[in-house]
Amino acid sequence: MSYASVEEFMQMVVAKNPGETEFHQAVREVVEFLWDFVQENPVYKHHKILERIIEPERTIIFRVPWRDDRGNIQVNRGYRIEFNSAIGPYKGGLRFHPSVNLSILKFLGFEQIFKNSLTTLPMGGGKGGSDFNPKGKSENEIMSFCQSFMTELYRHIGANVDIPAGDIGVGGREIGYLFGQYKRLKNEYTGVLTGKGLNWGGSLIRPEATGFGNVYFAQEMLKTRSESFKGKRVAISGFGNVAWGAAQKATELGAKVVTLSGPDGYVYDEEGLNNEKIHYMLELRATNNDVVAPFADKFKSAEFIAGRRPWEVKVDIALPCATQNELNEADAKNLVDNGCLCICEGANMPCTPEAISLFVKNRMLYAPGKAANAGGVAVSGLEMSQNSMRFNWSREEVDQKLQSIMKNIHATCVKYGQKGDYVNYVKGANIGGFIKVADSMIDQGCV
């Protein structure tokens, strides 16, 4: 069947994937920007690329039973969405959070296809995780869960098949437990997971990479208007690895980072974050309590605002680094009215469609996560290369390669998104990421 419009296509997507609102949102954003391009290039229509690319190659759902410290059996649900392997083995993170469901993981896996393509590294798209909540769990309970999760997942992954990484709720500790169980079950030492510890195959600057890359991308955007981070006020949401990396790099480039946030509210610090405060973000995250209020208790210059988001603060640059749909139309209006110059997504799909429309309407510098937060998976790809070579690059070498990758992604977005004197980075990222995958799918036949 041939679809006459985006709406007709989306009706099919919704009917085939009922109730998966996050997935519908992600597909609509991509299809709306690809539609005219596909119509102008009928080879993609002939090979039904849009219909095929929205369908995961494989969806794996499994039971994860484990025992808590009281000896009681707990049961969670595990997932791995192996979405597209046209340009390389599946690559994408694992998320452990109570909100995890099929819709969220399909949206993340779908976005990962285009993000990985934009890096130019040979990685397909995938995502996985569980509705397990690490918050309040002991070390032993987290290890028990991770070992049970990997006992099922190991049969579906491998260094040349599917290489998971971390995401929300999955940091270095969890990757360690997962890797240990994989090694035990397979009796082999391979680069099957990324985000590993430096002592056993990890890459330098991997924890900071998404945040660093986000700032490098924003830096390229600012250059198009003869601007820089120097002297700018920056609002950052979240307080995990992405926010931590972004705060480090923005501060290093001369900006003043004045906010961070959590599920409980946000912290405003008029003095800006320094090295001590940025380091404390990691200590807060390590408590597993998922709150930022203690930051204001520790630092007198900081004020905690409960139950609100940081986008009401007057800033020049906004870096949403927390989670999906955290910045809505009202937040976007605040940023526009306060003269914000640049919004660069550090999280996956943190801005709602209404917010994005407002940014584009006001011709603001706005970049979607599939382009702007690709630094994390890019360094994961570099970690895979180092594992394959049994070799490690220095911190400076990895950082240089990351900067180069982010510059190239920016150039791709400009190439496909520029119209007159305005660059639509959403259009540029979607078309730029699509072409490589779509052409590869055509080359490999109807599979």
Quick rundown:
This protein has 17 helices and 14 strands. It has 447 residues and is of the alpha/beta class.
Account of the 3D structure:
The chain has 447 residues and is of the alpha/beta class. Among the domains are: 58-190, Leucine Dehydrogenase, chain A, domain 1 (Rossmann fold), CATH 3.40.50; 209-367, NAD(P)-binding Rossmann-like Domain (Rossmann fold). It contains 17 helices and 14 strands. A seven-stranded mixed beta sheet has the order 9-8-7-6-10-11-12, with helices on both faces. Strands 1-2-4-3-5 form a five-stranded mixed beta sheet. It has a two-stranded antiparallel ribbon with strand order 13-14. α8 crosses α9 (241-252). The longest helix has 23 residues, at 395-417. It starts with 5 loop residues before the first helix and ends with a helix.
